[in-house]
Description:
Blueprint: H1 16-32, H2 37-43, H3 48-64, H4 74-83, H5 88-105, H6 109-130, H7 134-138, H8 152-155
Helix pairs in contact: 1-2, 1-3, 1-5, 5-6
Amino acid sequence: MDPTDAAPAAADITGRADLDVVLRRFYTAAFADPRIGPFFTEIAGTDLDVHLPRITDFWERALFRSADYRRNAFAPHAALQSARAMTAEDFGRWVQLWRATIDGLHRGPNAERAKAQGERIALTLHKRLAGADPELLRGEGTVGFVPLAALELRSMTV
């Protein structure tokens, strides 16, 4: 193969426009996913056109400290949890799709930070939502809580 035929290296995430593309692609996959899609489509009834600017503000603030995000990110997840418990596997699938989306579009320090931040957020949300209920920390078919970084789902292809 001629080196000039190789695909160009993916650029890093540099700002809001990149985040908008990442998030739109991620949520398209998440909404269609049989495991986590129902949380967005059936339980929360998420309207992507309404949700996208808010979540882009969140990620722009998390990665670049350049957006003004003052919403309570925990509250909508707590409402979902009260409607249907989210398990370690659900959060693991979210992380899997998040990482695959970023890897499919970007390479660089900001992309790596976005993946790590997503994993930390998922782990924190899962722990806070599960509270003292060991069954929620176990998830379906696991023995005790498994850190998201070690979940087999994370390494599977989408």
